[in-house]
Amino acid sequence: MSIEYLGLSSINGPLVVLEGVKGAAYDEIVEMTVDGKEKRLGRIIEINDDKAVIQVFEGTDRMALRNTHTKLTGKPMEIGVSEAMFGRTFNGIGEPIDGLGHVEAEKTLDVNGKPLNPVTREYPRNYIRTGISAIDGLMTLIRGQKLPIFSGNGLPHDELAAQLVRQSSLGDSDNDDEKFAVVFAAMGVKHDVADFFQRTFAESGVSDHVITFINLANDPVVERLITPKVALTVAEYLAFEKGMHILVILTDMTSFAEAMREVSSSKGEIPSRKGFPGYLYSELATIYERAGIVSGVNGSVTQIPILTMPNDDITHPIPDLTGYITEGQIVLDRDLNGQSIYPPISVLPSLSRLMKDGIGEGFTRADHQDVANQLFSSYSKVGDARALASVIGEDELSDTDKKYLVFGRAFEQMFIGQSVNDNRTIFETLDIGWNLLGLMPKGELDRIDTKILDKYYKPTMLDANGDIVPATVED
């Protein structure tokens, strides 16, 4: 028999306090009725003797101490999951907002999930092709990996997220037995950004393998804390029970963390770095660690969390803690963006720690690792040549340094830079890399195995239009 409690003890922002509670449990969902008609959901986040602190998902507007009835459900936050969710759009707690009606659930799951037993985890192998050369060639995304994108305000991370949804696939294999899909979750986005995502997915024809969760900026802040957990619950069901390979894109994790800070402040907790609660690390870890591959299961969950660094500060607590938990990072650069290079990926501070185990012979191409190593090495020397040119002038540079300047400009324009609709195969990406390396003298390419170098290296030059063409004998 369920007990209904009349009235509240206090209301503070998105939180309410209920006294005289018996048999309540942490994370339990409560149903609240305002003025005898409006239904809202809440979650118990703290219990102290007979007092329960409740987060109200829909916010506490129009709630008063005497006009609210509260009923304990005895269950944690759950969501009904189904393959019929593909092509649909939901709010932050999994309710349909696309006007297409209710989704018949195949199963109901706790959104908090269950920690993956480390013993049952398989080491990530194989890669996911994004069609973006800088990612596929130099910081390859591996199935089961968590690879965040560090961005900044005003940088095109929304366009990049939409492109990843449109273009991502299971490499260039023809294995139709493996099913791939995307779960996309946006937190704290403005209406125009939400419209951009929905319109892009619909117009590009990828909606049939995308499930979208959108929490708007004017939605209750507490809903933002649930959104990534709801998205990952759906992803885990499709991956581990339906055998699909799921890419989860979460944007923007900074909004999630700031929602945590707001709720923590409302609870009166002692703040840690930058005002964030001391458990920010563990909360981020509970989300990021839900990526992976389970032994004996065909599916996988791969994560690309996107976060905006306040003031472009990579040492800010959110990117700093994210870097500890995840396996690499992709960093967007404001200077490249100012040169109209898209996507403005800063190559040198970016990396994928699992890349080496999912590329090469049998995965991409035998020369992949060597090409990536040489491109990193050559581009790192471009900065030295540019610094020297700024001091003594470009005309005074050695011939080799001048070649590095040419290589650097071409690398940024042709390898990093590509159009928002340019979906490159891994072979096209590697061939572009070889064309760029052909601009350098063969003796400078010291990171490539001699056999691979002899097989693929061909001297190149830039023509009058700035295109790469084979070098003539005289050159």
Automatic annotation (TrEMBL):
Taxonomy, superkingdom: Bacteria
GO molecular function: ATP binding; proton-transporting ATP synthase activity, rotational mechanism; proton-transporting ATPase activity, rotational mechanism
Keywords associated with the record: ATP synthesis, Hydrogen ion transport, Ion transport, Transport
Residue ranges constituting the ATPase F1/V1/A1 complex alpha/beta subunit N-terminal domain according to the UniProt record: 9-61
Membrane-spanning ranges: none
A Pfam family matched in the record: ATP-synt_VA_C
InterPro entries to which the protein is assigned, alphabetical: ATP-synt_VA_C, ATPase_F1/V1/A1_a/bsu_N, ATPase_F1/V1/A1_a/bsu_nucl-bd, P-loop_NTPase, V-ATPase_su_B/beta
Keyword Cytoplasm: no
Domain ATPase F1/V1/A1 complex alpha/beta subunit nucleotide-binding residue range list: 131-352
Domain ATP synthase A/B type C-terminal residues, every copy: 357-457
Protein name as it appears in the record: V-type ATP synthase beta chain
Protein source organism: Lachnoanaerobaculum saburreum F0468
Source taxonomy: Bacteria, Bacillati, Bacillota, Clostridia, Lachnospirales
